[in-house]
TrEMBL record:
It comes from the Bacteria. The lineage of its organism: Bacteria, Pseudomonadati, Bacteroidota, Bacteroidia, Bacteroidales. Residues 379-435 form the Minor fimbrium subunit Mfa1 C-terminal domain. InterPro entries: Mfa1_C. This is Major fimbrial subunit protein type IV, Fimbrillin, C-terminal domain protein.
Amino acid sequence: MVLALAFSSCTSDPSGLGKKVELPLKGNRVIHLAIQSPRTVTLRAEEQDKDPMEEISSLRFVFYGGASKDKVSHIRELTVLPSTTLSDIPLTLPAEDYRLVVIANATPSLKASTQVGSPLSMLENFTPHRASDFTTDHPLRLAMLNSQGAVEVSRTAFSSPTPSVTITLESTLARVLVYGDPTLAGGAKKGNLPPSYIITAQAKSIAALRPLALLPNGSMEVPGDGSSPEDRYPKGEYYDTWLSTPPTKTAGLLSYFDPLSVAINTIEWCAMPTSEPTSNSWKQVRGIYAKESTIPPTAYLTGTVPTVYLRYPYIPSGLTLTAKEGWLSFQGQYYTETQVKQMLQTERYPDEELKEALTRAGITSASFTKPFDKEGLAFYYMGISYYTIPIRHFDNTKAPLKNSIGRYGLVRGNEYRIHITNIQRAGSPLPAKLEDNLTPLSEEKAHHSALTLAPVITRRSDTELY
C-alpha cells in the first residue's frame, strides 16, 4: 500500500479525527492525506475470505517533533469505514518539521509505544515481541508500518497543493503455507490424522519499524532508493555479531517450541492442505504468521534458521493401524502398537534383541501414551512422523550458493509457500531439538523456487523429505 500525502494551507474541520490529542485551531494548518495503492486493498471487510495482510481497519498517524524530531508530539487516528474516502483525509496540525510514522491496524502494543512523548527508538530498537503483538482480533488484521523508516515532513510541505510525500506501508509479519499430497516411497501409506505444521526458531526480538536491508549485490538499502521489496533482506538483531563470530548458543536469543510439548499436542497446529488454496480462508489462521528472522551466512546452522516442524501420519509398508494407533521401529523392522503390547503381555518376542531393548528402555504396556526414541526403539505415537524444513528466502537465482546472503530466513511482508511433493521415509518420532543445535545446516536436496509478486511477496519452493 502506498500512502501519498498532500499538504495545503487552507483550513478545514477534521471532524472525528485526532481525538486522542486535542489542539487549538489557532496557528494550525490542515494536512490533506491521500491513500493510494498499487494493489487492491479491502477496507474493513467483514467477510472471512479476505487477506489480513492487506486489509485496513484503522490508521494511526504518529508525528515526531521537537529539535531532534525523535519524540511523539502529535497523534491523529482514523477509523476506516466502507464509506471512508481515502483520497483526501484532512488532519489539523501545527506547520512544523516532523518525522512521520503511519500505522495501519495499530495494536495495543504499538499504541503503547507511540504515546505522546514516546521516543522513536521504541519502534526502531529490537524488543522482545510475540507475533500476536502485531495482530488484532475479530476480525484478524495485521499491523502495517512504514517500509523504509520514519519519513521526513518539512514545514514547507504544508503549502504544497499536491502530494509531496509518499509512504509505503508493509506488514510487520511474514506468513508460511505448507501444502501438498506427497508421494510416499516404498509402499508406505498416509494415516488418517491430518498433516499439520508450525513455525519454530523465530527471532525473539524484532523492531516494529523494519531495519534497512541488505540487497543481493551486497549493498545496503537507502530510504527512497527505489529498491524492490523482493530484493530486501533486513539485518536481524544478531546479524552483524554472528557475521563476525558464529553463535555459541541460541537459548534465550531465538524462540522455539518445546519438542515434547509439540509431540503431545499441547499447542495449536496449522492444517496442511493437500493442494494450493484458491481462497483466502487459510490466511485467517494465526499460527501461519511469523516474526521476521534473518541471519548471516556464517550462522546457517540447524538451530538458527527459521524452520517448519511438519507432522505427517506416515505408516510403513506392511503395517495396518487402527485409528490413532502408533507403531514401533527397531533395527529396520516395524511393529504395530497392538503387536508390541501383546509381546509385553505374553512375553513372547520375535527375537531376543527386541526383548532386551524393551527391557533396557523400561517399556511397559503403559508406555505408549507419548512418543519415545531410546535404546534403538522408535515409537511413533498415533503414527506421526516429524520432519524439519529450513525456510528458504531467496531462490537460487538470487542466492545460488549455500553461503549466499539471504538464502534462508523470514522477512516481513513475504508469503512463503512450501510444496511437499515426496516423502522418502519415516521421519523422527519426536521433533528435533533445535535450541543450541549449532551443527551446520544440511541441504539434502536443492529447493527449486520460483518467485512471483502477488498481493504480498510470495516465495515458493518444492520440497522432498528424505
